[in-house]
């Protein structure tokens, strides 16, 4: 059922067909600008500096969905004329977020070139349908952020609602997913979900939003590079002429100059395999392997924290490091489990003996401290 629906989405237009930009940056397509439009001066200053750094597509939020009330919720419709000034002064194309039919109407009347649907809107099919209905009959490019929660169907559902009203200039934005766990990023990137999306709708251009993934300037380069390694088509990055004074998302924005440096430093890998489909598939799969390896290490780290806790407890209670019955029962259990997953006894032995030895070393360190 879902497959049949997606099949007819194979006439989604290629990104390069949307933007007749003479950008100096060949790849990726970069959309940059402040999280929020604050004043006309801030908008124009930022846009001019971005333009000087080779950016031709400008973003600024006018209606800001904020997690808590009483934060700066955007300047509202008056910011649209500031975006018009950007177009007139710099020749850039301009983009803003829409979250309801009224926003769409106002943005279309103001000749905004590109719209995006935010993560807090993608989660809500009522809001998405309202936006889709308001867009009927237009062919404005629409970028769809992933929903806050890691739900691929919801993301695809939003694309389908827009496709159904005739929008063909569609692209997705991966901006990371909400998690209650403490992680180094503001929103956890789930690269596999975006890879699955690409598999389901092969024509769909994908942007990465390193700003909302990172939450901090210092991670922007690493996240942007990951997106390039995964063949993302574009980046949408928050940039502000005076980032530390920004009225929203101050810690994740960077100056247009620093953005220029970041983009210059991105390594766009040369294709090692000629066939693009083969290359992309290999790339995606290798990326998943790297991701799993990192996860394995994270798990081992967590396991070691528990081992150390046990070590301290043994010390307090005068118990020796090694209890051989315990180790035998671990090995026995894990070998049975390993066999059900198709792993050889030799492999399980080698792997878990190494883990056990490292655990003993850590516990001995604690005992002899
Ligand atoms: C934004 O891009 O300014 C924004 C609000 O992002 P998100 O919807 O990803 O939180
Ligand atoms: Mn923001």
Distance between the amino and carboxyl termini: 62 Å
Give me the count of strands.
8
State the major sheet: 8 strands, parallel, barrel
How much is the average pLDDT? Answer: 92
List the ligand species. Answer: phosphoenolpyruvate, manganese (II) ion
Shape: elongated
How many H/I helices? Answer: 15
Helix content: 40-55%
Radius of gyration: 25 Å
Listing every helix as H and every strand as E from the N terminus to the C terminus, the arrangement reads HHEHEHEHEHHEHEHEHHEHHHH
Strand order within the widest beta sheet: 1-2-3-4-5-6-7-8
Structural class: alpha/beta
Q: Per DSSP, what share of the residues sits in E-state strands of 2 or more residues?
A: 5-15%
Q: Which short descriptors sum up this protein?
A:
369 residues; alpha/beta; eight-stranded parallel beta barrel; 15 helices; 8 strands; 51% helix; binds phosphoenolpyruvate; binds manganese (II) ion
Report on the structure:
The protein has an eight-stranded parallel β-barrel, surrounded by six helices. The mean pLDDT is 92. α5 (101-109) runs parallel beside α7 and α13 packs across α15 (345-367). With 369 residues, it is of the alpha/beta class. It has helices at residues 2-7, 15-18, 40-52, 78-90, 101-109, 119-122, 125-135, 152-164, 191-200, 210-214, 220-229, 256-265, 276-316, 324-340, 345-367; strands at residues 29-33, 57-59, 93-97, 114-117, 142-145, 170-174, 206-208, 234-238. The protein is 51% helix and 9% strand. It has 15 helices and eight strands. α4 (78-90) links the parallel β2 and β3. It is elongated, with a radius of gyration of 25 Å. Bound molecules: phosphoenolpyruvate and manganese (II) ion. The site of manganese (II) ion has 4 residues, from loops. Phosphoenolpyruvate is lined by residues 35, 61, 65, 97, 118-120, 145, 175, 209, 212.
């Amino acid at each position: 059922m879902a497959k049949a629906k997606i099949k007819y989405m194979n006439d989604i237009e290629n990104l390069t067909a949307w933007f007749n930009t003479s950008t100096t940056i060949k790849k990726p397509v970069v959309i940059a600008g402040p999280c929020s439009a604050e004043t006309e001066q801030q908008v124009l200053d930022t846009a001019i500096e971005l333009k000087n750094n080779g950016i031709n597509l400008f973003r600024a939020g006018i209606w800001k969905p904020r997690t808590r009330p009483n934060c700066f919720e955007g300047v509202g419709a008056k910011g649209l004329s500031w975006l018009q000034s950007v177009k007139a002064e710099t020749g850039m194309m301009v983009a803003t977020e829409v979250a309801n039919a009224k926003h769409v109407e106002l943005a279309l009347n103001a000749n905004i070139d590109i719209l995006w649907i935010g993560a807090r809107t993608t989660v809500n099919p009522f809001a998405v349908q309202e936006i889709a209905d308001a867009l009927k009959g237009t062919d404005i490019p629409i970028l769809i952020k992933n929903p806050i929660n890691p739900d691929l169907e919801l993301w695809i559902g939003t694309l389908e609602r827009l496709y159904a009203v005739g929008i063909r200039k569609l692209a997705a934005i991966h901006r990371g997913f909400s998690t209650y766990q403490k992680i180094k990023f503001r929103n956890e990137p789930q690269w596999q979900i975006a890879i699955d999306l690409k598999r389901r709708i092969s024509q769909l251009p994908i942007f990465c939003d390193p700003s909302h993934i990172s939450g901090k300037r210092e991670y922007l380069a690493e996240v942007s590079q990951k997106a390039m390694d995964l063949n993302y088509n574009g980046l949408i990055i928050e940039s502000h002429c005076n980032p530390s004074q920004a009225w929203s998302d101050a810690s994740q924005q960077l100056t247009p100059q620093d953005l220029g440096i970041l983009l210059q430093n991105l390594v766009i890998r040369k294709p090692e395999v000629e066939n693009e489909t083969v290359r992309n598939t290999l790339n995606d799969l290798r990326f998943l392997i790297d991701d799993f390896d990192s996860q394995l290490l994270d798990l081992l780290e967590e396991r070691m924290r528990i081992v150390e806790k046990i070590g301290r407890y043994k010390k307090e209670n005068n118990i020796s490091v090694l209890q051989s019955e315990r180790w035998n029962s671990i090995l026995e259990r894990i070998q049975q489990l390993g066999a059900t997953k198709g792993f050889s006894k030799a492999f399980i032995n080698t792997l878990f003996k190494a883990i056990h030895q490292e655990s003993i070393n850590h516990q001995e360190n604690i005992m002899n401290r």
